[in-house]
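Tokens for chain A. Residues wanted.
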């Protein structure tokens, strides 16, 4: 009886739409980007631009945060709402240029994302470099739900080189493009919720690719704890 009841509760919970917030702002992108999240009737996708992307009690309204913004710094209010969301188990997928957002916020890049695109040199680290258009081939280097059925990718995309990537990040996909850093998909070191960073995703060359879409969908489901 108890097991039956639990199964019923689990089924009811998984039937709830997955609430996904996409954070934008500070960087232009082709509106085709939004098609990446299409085709899922069980997803409720909202777009929230800066400067009010992260309001208090974010976790009550959002299951998965997808960041596709590029702002130099977040306000104290946004940082506090974002941190509370992550400490409360909220899932996070950091996409492409969002790897440069708040690149000097140590908690964010060091503890959560496990990587950052340096917008300028810092100490003995040179700034990171972006190059587009660039063909990026990438393949899974680990067995993980995020890369399930993604296979080898070949995207007309943008290469990032000279990023800082944490030794605590778990790399899931790598490229061999000499203008790019090897890791292009990784799991961030944060343990209080699930975090995936994806370097790929500059424009329509990635947005329209079925393998890229599969990767993004897998990442969203995994950080939400709803992977197959
Ligand atoms: Zn880009």
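Reply:
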């Amino acid at each position: 009886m108890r097991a039956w009841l639990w199964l019923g509760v689990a089924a009811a919970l998984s039937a709830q739409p997955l609430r996904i917030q996409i954070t934008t702002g500070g960087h232009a992108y082709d509106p085709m980007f939004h098609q990446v999240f299409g085709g899922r009737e069980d997803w409720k996708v909202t777009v929230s631009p800066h400067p009010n992307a992260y309001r208090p009690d974010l976790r009550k309204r959002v299951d998965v945060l997808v960041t596709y913004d590029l702002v130099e710094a977040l306000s104290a209010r946004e940082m506090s709402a974002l941190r509370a969301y992550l400490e409360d188990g909220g899932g996070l997928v950091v996409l492409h240029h969002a790897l440069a957002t708040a690149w000097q916020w140590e908690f964010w890049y060091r503890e959560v994302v496990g990587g950052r695109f340096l917008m300028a040199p810092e100490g003995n680290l040179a700034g990171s470099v972006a190059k587009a258009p660039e063909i990026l081939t990438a393949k899974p280097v680990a067995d993980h739900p995020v890369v399930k059925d993604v296979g080898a990718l070949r995207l007309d995309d943008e290469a990032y080189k000279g990023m800082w990537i944490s030794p605590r990040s778990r790399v899931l996909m790598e490229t061999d493009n000499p203008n790019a850093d090897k890791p292009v998909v990784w799991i961030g070191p944060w343990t209080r919720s699930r975090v995936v960073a994806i370097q790929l995703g500059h424009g329509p060359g990635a947005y329209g690719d079925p393998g890229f879409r599969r990767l993004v969908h897998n990442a969203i489901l995994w950080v939400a704890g709803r992977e197959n």
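The chain has six helices and eleven strands. The pocket of zinc ion is lined by residues 96-97, 158, 202 (CB under 6 Å).
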